[in-house]
């Protein structure tokens, strides 16, 4: 949007043109220069500022989940904080991380494609050292990663990153499934080199060791849910939730005033058709229940409770003993 001039600025501009201090052609050339903007086609911006803000909010929530999870796992001070959220080409992301690092691949169902969680080796070894009873010192010996260490780290990250879907629950129902652990990013072709990705850089502190956790989300993976990242969608969701709550409260009020039939069955017995024909006033029928057994209480022909019959003043009454669970 072009800048709106105040009345004072307009008067000053007209005065400069009238006095000859400024030429009309000069103003036109300046206007043309303003219209020209540099655009790098290799860094195509596919996410709006509004969507980037919502992505930041989602990952701030995920960072809080990771802080709680790793604090309980490692029994030491752990802090995850979102540092930056930006969009850039996939090739630029691959060249920005170390040649040897810990790359966790996670599937997001029902979305297509995978997400990368790149963990700085210094942080990973501090976590590993803490799990094995050490003080949590960081080191970088990723080239000599043993099979046992790989297994422990895989299980550690798997338990943490499968919780990623919970951070998206306000946007869509996403289930995170841990796929694999890779070491060399150069052999990982997740998408084409020029494909736009979202890079979320999370600053991690484990005891006195610090480093970064990078989350890489390809545009093609997020494309089906991108419209839901707008503030307009969030407002509609809040209105829908409010309407649903009002409808639920109204339905609950109506149900609370409903009348239902309640009946108690003292017992049952079986008779032949001949015995039924010869029944007379004063005959006694032996039921299949004892006098000490509770009776069954039905609500609209549905067995709901067990109760004990008795008297309440001059009226017959039932004392509810327990609820009958559905089979």
Automatic annotation (TrEMBL):
<feature type="domain" description="Flagellar motor switch protein FliN-like C-terminal">
    <location>
        <begin position="254"/>
        <end position="324"/>
    </location>
</feature>
<comment type="similarity">
    <text>Belongs to the FliM family.</text>
</comment>
<keyword id="KW-0145">Chemotaxis</keyword>
<dbReference type="GO" id="GO:0071978">
    <property type="term" value="P:bacterial-type flagellum-dependent swarming motility"/>
</dbReference>
<keyword id="KW-0472">Membrane</keyword>
<dbReference type="InterPro" id="IPR028976">
    <property type="entry name" value="CheC-like_sf"/>
</dbReference>
<dbReference type="Pfam" id="PF02154">
    <property type="entry name" value="FliM"/>
</dbReference>
<dbReference type="Pfam" id="PF01052">
    <property type="entry name" value="FliMN_C"/>
</dbReference>
<keyword id="KW-0966">Cell projection</keyword>
<keyword id="KW-0969">Cilium</keyword>
<keyword id="KW-0975">Bacterial flagellum</keyword>
<dbReference type="InterPro" id="IPR001689">
    <property type="entry name" value="Flag_FliM"/>
</dbReference>
<protein>
    <recommendedName>
        <fullName>Flagellar motor switch protein FliM</fullName>
    </recommendedName>
</protein>
<dbReference type="GO" id="GO:0009425">
    <property type="term" value="C:bacterial-type flagellum basal body"/>
</dbReference>
<dbReference type="GO" id="GO:0005886">
    <property type="term" value="C:plasma membrane"/>
</dbReference>
<keyword id="KW-1003">Cell membrane</keyword>
<dbReference type="InterPro" id="IPR036429">
    <property type="entry name" value="SpoA-like_sf"/>
</dbReference>
<dbReference type="InterPro" id="IPR001543">
    <property type="entry name" value="FliN-like_C"/>
</dbReference>
<keyword id="KW-0283">Flagellar rotation</keyword>
<dbReference type="GO" id="GO:0003774">
    <property type="term" value="F:cytoskeletal motor activity"/>
</dbReference>
<keyword id="KW-0282">Flagellum</keyword>
<dbReference type="GO" id="GO:0050918">
    <property type="term" value="P:positive chemotaxis"/>
</dbReference>
